[in-house]
Design a protein that fits this description.
heterodimer; A: Pdz3 Domain; six-stranded antiparallel beta barrel; B: 421 residues; alpha+beta; Pdz3 Domain; seven-stranded antiparallel beta sheet; six-stranded antiparallel β-barrel; 8 helices; flat
């Protein structure tokens, strides 16, 4: 017994000293898996540079970056000139954008061949074998900005807690890596990917602020780490197309967690659930006969887990939809008017997203319109079959349209007194207006927040 | 100054109001100070609707003699921001108090540049007289939440003056040099220099008479918003000074049901030609509609593109956006009845329920998770269509406190909450 213990202690000492000696070597080696990705978001009048951090996942030079790297409404064709930089380098390599995976939220890029030899996929490193324990030390990599050649630096922190959000996520006591970059344990095993960091509450004191609460978000470093269990099984989800499709669709938008107190009162003590509302007409949820106020308690016989904060169960439900493919059938156990029943929902194809919508910029008018989508119908509370018009996507500041009061997200319902039923119709009308240099004015009927307004727009 | 002017000074009063506020889950008494002017020997005083409202618990009037007398609300009308209160005449007679009665002047005869005086209680400074001119005698100005969250200014244009008008001047008279009341001061642009607005005496006379007669002004409603046609005549191929543009139609309103659409041009109403070429002409048109008896048949001749159509509709009673308010103090919950206008402007699917306007931190409603803006639709299994229903359930709760299951909606999202004793 004593001998065994001594051996163990010896072994432990050896391991620690070995790790300590090689941590900087590990750091330099693991740098081969991390990159900075630079691109531009091209809008009508601006070209906005964006730099995000990514991790190499395979030998084909595939790189993943967190969901927040690209705003959801940015169309893929607005993303331009991708360059991938290794830490400490000034030379960028070309890359292409492969799209976003709806389930993980990751954006996928692929770097040109010549850089691939210098990269090592993160999968080359053995992953941790067990969930990190409280107080375990993890370390990771941060990268400086482009003007500092993306110089890498070392970060480390201890695990404060591990939570299901709904994915298994370690929260560390301090920032441990740049968001999107890998995190390792002391022996160099792959522990997870740093996520977009959480906000932290502070009180702000200054000459005119007396302890006002503010939320600070660190955009350069993060203390939130998605663990390998939630990463390795999904690295194969490289989108087939830049749209990230197929994306499965359920079609209820007002999902709310079942409050524990409510659960207790309606005799569902210690159970978790989501309350359904705001069901899109014609959606899979509607077709399955789901109704407002139905409470979903289980999916395919699996009770919904109790997660904290309460809201996380809604995220869990969303993930259960997205992990399936269109056409899959989900059996939901629901509570309706106090009675349990099973409802089969055949998931559909997510309707066209804003980033996929057809849009056109009229340069002389300083106006971008895009087609009306079913999500616009939800937002503007239009009834099915009601003509939507077209959606204003951009109004050039200072243009005649801006002066007349047109704003992004307005709906154009009529142009020059003619009702606009389709996007094509709007394009024809606006193209004619744009082309006619002698025209003094045109008139729009727009609607905003349920109220309409007639706008007269002077030209020239 | 002439005698008329001195006489009006003796008719101007200070008004201190304490009223119930249902803001953050409690019934709270708050105080405010305004001005008013005595318009009859039997103690009627005109002031602003935002000074004296039905929420007032006590109204104390300070006469020019500095004597204080209690008063009661006779009626209020937020659309014109006017209210009428009445002095406790038993008290006045018992204490042998005296006052003078102001005379109205003709607001229609005012001209820009004419000297006027504002009399009132700015910042509590009683009987302050400031001098200025009529800057504009016909200023359109409307505000959908201008009087304690209620709409105002839709049915009248305003007098604009550069006589200094500060908080507390509200409800006091705007007078000419001979002491005739030509307006009731109501508002100023905050942060601007001397841009004050007063309700013209022509409006004050009709509305105050109506308030004295019936306690409220009943108006007709068709449900469309107007816009001036200015410079759009060519586009609509119209002769100038012909018709008014429909900017918006309330869903479900009489106009909507009759088929009126935004961008229509209304040429005539019951055979009378309408002229809404300029913004100044819109309020009078709205006032014409509002002035019809409720249930009047209205035929609009409407130009839509190349054709002209006649649309027939019946007027409904005009309702305010803001519903009745109440606070359930043990829950720490303040609510307001959902009204048709509120439902329409917030694109709600239903015109019933009560909306949460405040919760008291740490009290059951707050602990349950209810927040401002939630619309309570159900308690237990009982649908809440009206505030009264919730009051009944609350009374039952007070008698026997038990956890209550609350269903509420926000942006069409349904959530369940539990209010626990």
């Amino acid at each position: 017994m004593k001998t065994v213990l001594r051996l163990c202690l010896l072994g432990l000492t050896a391991a620690v000293s070995l790790t300590a000696a090689t941590l900087s070597e590990l750091f330099n080696d693991r740098l081969k898996s991390v990159v900075a990705v630079e691109f531009f978001v091209q809008s009508e009048t601006e070209r906005q540079p964006v730099t995000v951090l990514g991790t190499v996942i395979d030998a084909q030079g595939t790189i993943i970056v967190p969901a927040a790297a690209i705003l959801p409404n940015v169309a893929p064709d607005q993303l331009k000139d991708f360059r991938v930089y290794r830490p400490g380098s000034t030379e960028g390599s070309n890359a292409v954008y492969l799209g976003q995976d709806a389930f993980t939220g990751w954006h996928f890029f692929r770097v040109e061949e010549k850089l691939r030899a210098e990269l090592v996929p993160i999968t080359q490193y053995a992953p941790i074998t067990a969930e990190p324990a409280l107080s375990d030390e993890l370390w990771g990599i941060g990268l400086r900005n482009k003007d500092e050649d993306f110089l890498p630096y070392f970060l480390s922190a201890r695990v404060a807690t591990v939570m299901k959000l709904p994915q298994k996520t370690a929260i560390l006591g301090n920032e441990v890596a740049g968001p999107g970059l890998p995190v390792f344990d002391l022996s160099g095993r792959f522990a997870g990917l740093a996520q977009t960091s959480f906000g932290q509450n502070f009180l702000l004191f200054s000459h005119n602020q007396h302890g006002n609460p503010i939320l600070l978000v660190n955009v350069e470093e993060s203390s939130v780490v998605l663990l390998t269990d939630e990463i390795l099984p999904h690295l194969g989800r490289v989108p087939n197309s830049v749209t990230g499709r197929p994306i499965s669709w359920f079609g209820a938008y007002g999902l709310q967690p079942l409050d524990p107190e409510v659960a207790k009162l309606i005799k569902l003590e210690n159970k978790s659930g989501v309350v359904i509302s705001d069901i899109a007409d014609g959606s899979p949820a509607a077709q399955a006969g789901l109704q407002e106020r139905d409470i979903v308690l289980a999916i395919d016989g699996q009770p919904l887990p109790r997660l904290k904060p309460d809201r996380v169960v809604v995220g869990y439900f969303g993930q259960e939809v997205l992990r399936r493919t269109p056409g899959d059938v989900m059996t939901l156990s629901i509570l309706r008017n106090g009675e349990r029943q099973d409802v089969k929902v055949k998931l559909g194809d997510e309707p066209k997203l804003v980033r996929e919508a057809d849009r056109h910029y009229f340069e002389r008018l300083g106006l971008t319109v895009r087609e009306f989508l079913s999500s616009d119908g939800m937002m503007h509370r239009t009834k099915p079959g009601e003509k939507g018009g077209v959606v204003v996507n951009f109004v050039k500041p200072g243009s005649q349209l801006a002066t007349a009061g047109l704003r992004p997200d307005d709906l154009v319902r009529e142009i020059d007194g003619d009702e606009i039923a389709t996007y094509a119709q709007a394009l024809t009308k606006l193209q004619a207006i744009e082309a006619d240099k002698n025209r003094p004015e045109f008139v729009l009927l727009v609607s905003r927040g349920g109220e309409t307004s007639v706008l007269r727009i002077k030209l020239n | 100054m002439n005698r008329g002017f001195n006489r009006v000074l003796e008719a101007v009063v200070r008004i201190d109001v304490s009223e119930i506020e249902f803001e953050a889950g409690t019934k709270r008494l708050t105080g405010g100070t305004g001005s008013g002017v005595i318009i009859s020997g039997d103690g009627l005083i005109v002031t602003n609707a935002h000074v004296a409202s039905p929420e007032a618990v006590s109204i104390t009037v300070t006469l020019a003699s500095l004597e204080k007398v209690e008063a009661k609300l006779v009626g209020w009308d937020h659309w014109t921001d006017l209210a009428v209160i009445r002095l406790n005449m038993t008290e006045v007679n018992r204490r042998k108090l005296t006052f003078t009665v102001a005379e109205f002047g003709d607001s229609a005869a005012l001209y820009p540049g004419q000297t006027v005086y504002a009399v009132g209680t700015p910042y509590g400074l009683e009987r302050t007289v400031t001098r200025g001119i009529i800057s504009n005698a016909n200023r359109p100005f409307r505000d959908n939440q201008g009087v304690r969250g209620y709409e105002t200014g839709l049915f009248n244009n305003w007098l604009q003056t550069d006589a200094a008008i500060n908080p507390g001047n509200s409800g006091g008279p705007l007078v000419t040099e001979d002491g005739k009341v030509v307006g009731i001061n109501a508002r100023g642009y905050i942060g601007a220099d001397n841009l004050g607005f007063a309700i013209p005496s022509s409006v004050v006379r009709t509305v105050s008479a109506g308030l004295v007669r019936e306690g409220a002004i009943t108006r007709s409603y068709l449900g469309f918003a107007l816009k001036e046609l200015q410079d759009l005549e060519n586009f609509y191929t119209l002769a100038a000074n012909n018709g008014v543009l429909v900017n918006d139609v309330d869903p479900g309103s009489p106009a909507a049901r009759a088929g009126l659409r935004a961008s229509d041009v209304v040429l005539t109403m019951n055979g009378r030609r309408l002229d809404g070429r300029f913004p100044e002409q819109l309020a009078p048109i709205q006032a014409t509609i509002a002035g019809l008896p409720v249930g009047t048949k209205v035929v609009l001749e409407v130009k839509r593109g190349g054709q002209t159509v006649a649309l027939t509709m019946l007027t409904e009673k005009l309702e305010s956006r803001v519903g009745a308010e109440w606070a359930f103090e043990k829950w720490g919950l303040s609510v307001r009845q959902v009204t048709r206008a509120f439902a329409r402007s917030n694109q709600l699917t239903s015109e019933t329920g009560v909306v949460v306007i405040g919760v008291q931190p740490g009290y059951p409603a707050d602990v349950a998770g209810l927040a401002r803006g939630d619309i309570i639709t159900k308690v237990g299994s009982a649908p809440i269509l009206e505030l009264e229903k919730l009051k009944q359930l609350y009374a039952a709760y007070e008698a026997k406190p038990e956890p209550q299951l609350i269903e509420a909606q926000r942006n069409r999202r349904i959530s369940l909450y539990v209010i626990k004793p």
